[in-house]
Amino acid sequence: MSSLVLGRIGRTRKQDLTEAGKTGARDAWQVLANGGVATVCAAFSGILFAFWPPLPGYSPLLRADIWMVAFCGAYAAATADTWGTEIGTLARQMPRSILTFKPIAAGLSGGITAVGTLAEIAGAIFIAVFALIAFALAYAASGLFLNPNRVAIAVVAGGIVGALVDSLLGASMQELRHCPACDRSCETDPHACGAPTRRIRGLPGFSNDLVNFAATLVGAGTALILAAV
């Protein structure tokens, strides 16, 4: 819901970002890329909860509450990335590549701004707050318990690390194309102008959806490890 609200701010400017791979409403692939990992974590947590409490000697990775944290970490990564993009594209500051620090067009993957980075951190903290509320309710209802400080650190770290991986992959492995008609870099084929484009960087078929999937996977994994240790 927060991402929907942010997406409506400055909509006209964002619709003009013809270099971006996807604009407008989310499609099914974007929903799967951003929510698929979290859904698996939630399902696994539900399965483990059927055997709660775990027997002595069980691995922490077989605790239902640990996988709840992983669920939150995945969404913290997705939220951090979305907040960074939605707010960062509105900044007057020219984005720079996270790898080369050279200026790049607003909307292209792998670009960062100071405002966008702060927005990513805020998005991760936003999810962590709701995670703490959810864990408080879960503890009251079922006895699930993890140290609140550990939950907060794990979720925020998952969000920030996941968003960082998103930017790194977007600046390296994600497919970047060039439109000869406009002489501009973009992420689509054809370009918004209708002209065919050629790949100039990245792996063939490595789209923004795959980048988002990897980011949420890293976010979930980071939160899972920090909650389990």
Q: Could you describe the 3D structure shown?
A:
There is one protein chain. By secondary structure, the protein is mostly helical. It has one domain (2-15, 25-175, 208-228). Helix content is 58%, strand content 7%. The protein has seven helices and five strands. The protein has helices at 2-8, 11-15, 28-49, 64-88, 114-142, 148-170, 208-228, and strands spanning 96-97, 111-112, 176-179, 184-186, 198-201. A three-stranded antiparallel sheet has the order 4-3-5, with no helix packed on it. Strands 1-2 form a two-stranded antiparallel sheet. The protein is elongated. The model has no long low-confidence stretch (mean pLDDT 88).
Strand segment tally:
5
Strand sequence of the main sheet, in spatial order? 4-3-5
What summary fits the major beta sheet? 3 strands, antiparallel
| Terminal Cα span | 32 Å
Please count the helical segments: 7
Bin the helical content: 55-70%
Uncertain ranges:
none
Strand fraction equals: 5-15%
Shape category: elongated
Domain tally: 1
How would you classify the helix and strand content by structural class? mainly alpha
H-E order: HHHHEEHHEEEH
Radius of gyration: 19 Å
Mean pLDDT: 88
